[in-house]
Amino acid sequence: MFYDAIVVGGGVIGSSVAYQLARRQKKVLVIDRGKTGQKASSAAAGMLGAQSELKGDDSLFQMARTSRAMFPSLAVELKELSGIDIGLQQKGLYKIALTNEEKEAWKQLGKSQKAVGETARWIDRDEMRETEPSLSDRISGALYLPEDGQVDAPKLTKAFAASAAALGADFLEHTDVTGLVEENGRIIGVRTIGGTYTGNAVIAAAGAWSASLLNAERTIVETYPVKGECFSVRTKRPLITGTLFTKDCYIVPKAGNRLVIGATEHVGSFDESVTLEGLFQLMEKARRLIPSLRESEMEDTWAGIRPQTKSGIPYVGPHPEKEGLWMATGHYRNGILLSAVTGKLMADQIEGKSVDPDWVTSGQSFITIEGGLS
Amino acid sequence: MFYDAIVVGGGVIGSSVAYQLARRQKKVLVIDRGKTGQKASSAAAGMLGAQSELKGDDSLFQMARTSRAMFPSLAVELKELSGIDIGLQQKGLYKIALTNEEKEAWKQLGKSQKAVGETARWIDRDEMRETEPSLSDRISGALYLPEDGQVDAPKLTKAFAASAAALGADFLEHTDVTGLVEENGRIIGVRTIGGTYTGNAVIAAAGAWSASLLNAERTIVETYPVKGECFSVRTKRPLITGTLFTKDCYIVPKAGNRLVIGATEHVGSFDESVTLEGLFQLMEKARRLIPSLRESEMEDTWAGIRPQTKSGIPYVGPHPEKEGLWMATGHYRNGILLSAVTGKLMADQIEGKSVDPDWVTSGQSFITIEGGLS
Amino acid sequence: MFYDAIVVGGGVIGSSVAYQLARRQKKVLVIDRGKTGQKASSAAAGMLGAQSELKGDDSLFQMARTSRAMFPSLAVELKELSGIDIGLQQKGLYKIALTNEEKEAWKQLGKSQKAVGETARWIDRDEMRETEPSLSDRISGALYLPEDGQVDAPKLTKAFAASAAALGADFLEHTDVTGLVEENGRIIGVRTIGGTYTGNAVIAAAGAWSASLLNAERTIVETYPVKGECFSVRTKRPLITGTLFTKDCYIVPKAGNRLVIGATEHVGSFDESVTLEGLFQLMEKARRLIPSLRESEMEDTWAGIRPQTKSGIPYVGPHPEKEGLWMATGHYRNGILLSAVTGKLMADQIEGKSVDPDWVTSGQSFITIEGGLS
Amino acid sequence: MFYDAIVVGGGVIGSSVAYQLARRQKKVLVIDRGKTGQKASSAAAGMLGAQSELKGDDSLFQMARTSRAMFPSLAVELKELSGIDIGLQQKGLYKIALTNEEKEAWKQLGKSQKAVGETARWIDRDEMRETEPSLSDRISGALYLPEDGQVDAPKLTKAFAASAAALGADFLEHTDVTGLVEENGRIIGVRTIGGTYTGNAVIAAAGAWSASLLNAERTIVETYPVKGECFSVRTKRPLITGTLFTKDCYIVPKAGNRLVIGATEHVGSFDESVTLEGLFQLMEKARRLIPSLRESEMEDTWAGIRPQTKSGIPYVGPHPEKEGLWMATGHYRNGILLSAVTGKLMADQIEGKSVDPDWVTSGQSFITIEGGLS
């Protein structure tokens, strides 16, 4: 079979791309070297934090808020197609200031967002502690971002994949892609350990593992891995309502009195193990933020490897040199948030539709490196 | 603290009772000897099969359809309170006939239900295979029960418990109840391995393990355990839409291309292990019913211990001899389906409200046995 | 069948008793309410620390060193019968002093042990760090106890149980004991949720859960639960050779570059969950003791409920009031170490052999409490 | 660092090679793309079946019996270095005949082995059932191979790896090898997703995943994957003593009353999932062979991907074209058995020692394929 599109990587990005293409009657093949949705996508805390870090004039901001706005209807569509509830919660995000410097900075952040039409409100310490009484009194206040929310990240990925499958997409698991198939200067397929598959478009969506695929022929797409460690706890009752976000740590309330706490940042590491020190530092920050967390029950610990780019902007667009090869990677800590718009953007481009040029990775993001990534 | 009610057992029945009481501003304590929702409640396949086995004039039928009708609004309430989606699917149940005898019997069953206002429609083999093309051609047809549905049983239990907790109910896990506290001929509390708790009502809702609590002072409430083994598989695409139900085996489609297949019946066993032969027999039946199941991926196997009563009618009401002691057990294979109405019924009775006397276990269900259960 | 002995509890104590009885051709039944060996026995770190805390003239010391001395031959016997290697390591234990006060105290401890013929040697900081170079330099030295060692606790329990089964002992899992059977003032069996079993001796060996069984008829055997939380890590290479033991934390090197770190002490708790704060405090102590532990990989966290007695002496002997009822519980943190001798001691007593009277719990350990344990 | 050897793949073969090289003071790096020992090596049942299938004059037979003979001393060495007991059992293997044709064939097999000095004895049905009373009476007898035995495969792999690490070998997990580094026509290292590593020898020991590494520059080393599904059960008592081996199924008794039952054969599949039908067929064979297995408790199911070669002979030797590149793969179902000798053989060759030329893969095993493996 000659596919309309072959997606390499069955994480949240690859599955979203597959879903959008399948909705448009494209014949799609998704290839994953393990099981779909097992890597960074299911390690994510699932925040839809369009406003938690991006300024109103940041190049990613417009993309982020567009993606965030897609989730309410996506939740309905995906539930209908796959039966999976993605756990969308729209209860806001509190960007906590721990110092006066942070207080000023967060206020500026909010201001920049209000300038482009978003809601952001400064809440002082006392009001904040009234809103979330479990919070420590050692905070300076918080920027309240009512439009930011969250989803259940593992379920979102499963829902994209199952919905794509329900619409006819093929999924090939446990299959390593070992190279690209080129014909007359155009990429027309992939070689895998289990055979060759051909199609009209090949989309590299393998997160931190995309680099070797994209770097065919010495053109280097520069991404690097950033390990993030997380843990979760169970509490007897809900401790918080909205998501708490500080510079070093976030706490996301999940269904059933679970809290997900993340995340460390280890640049350069592909090692998915959780270190004692990583976990320890995270626990220390979390228990300072919410003192009553100390009595909570440890549930799980895990890590994910996020793909970062040198520019900080994800690669979403055509490969700069190889026709037929497309890129959807480098989403770093915004993979869940940006998955919705990334899927649509890729499908639009592959269909040849016009898209906002600001959202497509332009040529200058690519550099040629002698000697590889090491 | 003197509780309004102490519920012994944090499974689906106990948690539903606690939820209904907490909604009415009662102060409730739920005691579980392990973690809540870990036993038969999370082993269940989650069918809401009011019509799959009960005749229209069966004494349980009215209770079953009343309970089934409560789930749509329950799903909304519980999601709101706990964030947990209970996975309600209302896509009908097909009671498959494999022989002509079954065909006649199922038709009679449907007739009896239509006589009391329910929908039930006979579907012949060809129409059935058009509706569910994965089905074997060795069937005789099916009774289609469009109102029967299903939920995700582990999530339903978690949602009841988390919602009750959100409304103020206390949960005490890892706590063995070792006896009842009696004062002036009235049960006023429980002794546990970690101390004594007192309250206005004690509700035995510990499923198959309720007997020793209820049988204080030689009055025997006769329940016995029935082990049921199940397994689940993953398929690449949805194989079926509705639930398939045969005399010996059922196949329930779950979100994300999972199928739950159950269940064996081992009378008298408290042993929660899955036997090779139990699993083998179940697999054999399932692969005959849906031949393409052979390529599916084994996901998990498990067993649950269901509480059965001699009469076949669950105990939902006051203990016949001990004032202050209440019973909510003996739901056998209908625990998930009947959990909704059982919670309401118990709360009504404990509040002193009048309830349909047919639904409350009457005295004749109880017998006195010399020498115990062995 | 009328058994020679019915052991209630299939943990390390119950399984050791069953093993010793089965070796003597007794017909034994072991009843466990879950699976055997799943509670405190498999939560233990497995230290054989006869000298780590007991003074030479401590009443338990003689019992402890006798038990420790049994392990080398036990390891061989159990491997032969069950195929299970109990992971006996005889590489010594270092009782680390962190302050000068501890230094003096540990030296005194060693002196008291040398007085009764044991080996114990003070090692100063520099020698200690030469021996175990991963250790922090903030220690004052250590008492080296070369005869103390360790086993793999879960495997020891499994090996006792499998060896007893190989010698003919019956094991009944998933079976709650609900009461004792008494005849003419003598205990002759147990009632369980699945029937009644009779025998010549009933041995309560259910650890922290033994109390309700032993406290028939208002005579209180006073034990209380002490929860201990632990965690384990993986290192790339062996960090230490011997076991490190401080006042608050121990680190036990296991096969395959694993380290087990324990344990917190929560008096009165039957709750087997690991709290954030318990884990955090333990991690803090461990990373101070071995700074390079910070890079290690978190593997698992768990908790066990240890049975403590008011006197601090385990109950190993006949029940003070009920003929036919025996006790083997209250071993607190010494269950693994004392399991060997406890098995032998119980078997000797049940056979009517004379035993060292100092090792058998005497009457004065028992008290009558009004109003129960709470 | 310039390594003496870089081993790609941390399974049983790679770890054995690393262990033998580390023992000879070589500086070794083992690179695994996941965790070491997680693939086929830990899926294996651990049989040391040198005589179960190979004729006395088979080219692999000499290698197989040499390897088998190494295990007793290996067990001691690895336990000493790593603390891990590899679970060596030397209780023989019974090659069961189910038909008269098999009876004649197995007798011939034994005869061919006796001709080269091995022990093999025909046991008729009645004697066989006396020896292993749990066996079905529908067998025709068995060839008894007293020298064949078994180990615990996951522990063997861990023991090789931990022993190599203890001797100074470096292990790099979670690291994809993306290509070879070539200099002046010689392989001098590997490129990985986390950087480049150089060394004097590169050994491809990645099992079924070795092909892409070995097939640099269009020379095809022809291996293909064969998936094998297994399951394990727990029994209350030991059902069998020796390993039972039939044409389609084997049953291996493990420590602690576990039985491992394997294995299906799916040629061409890299998919590690267990299918319903694969498991079903295996269960059917096993319950016919040992009827009382029906009451056993299901414990686990799993699958592994074994690397097979077209000739059926593993590749153990230099790559036919690329100097500096070595191969140790293609062991199919004999990976555990042959791991011992493969490690030694590779270390000898890399050190430049002379080895038995019959055991080294010769040139004719390699062919050049146009268009790859698909």
TrEMBL record, chains A, B, C, D:
UniProt xrefs under InterPro entries: FAD-dep_OxRdtase, FAD/NAD-bd_sf, Gly_oxidase_ThiO
Pfam families: DAO
EC number: 1.4.3.19
Pathways per UniProt: Cofactor biosynthesis; thiamine diphosphate biosynthesis
GO molecular function annotations of the record: glycine oxidase activity
Keywords: Oxidoreductase, Thiamine biosynthesis
Name of the top EC class for this enzyme: oxidoreductase
Domain FAD dependent oxidoreductase: 4-348
Substrates-to-products reaction catalysed: glycine + O2 + H2O = glyoxylate + H2O2 + NH4(+)
Keyword Oxidoreductase in record: yes
NCBIfam families for the chain: thiamin_ThiO
Protein name, UniProt field: glycine oxidase
Organism: Halobacillus kuroshimensis
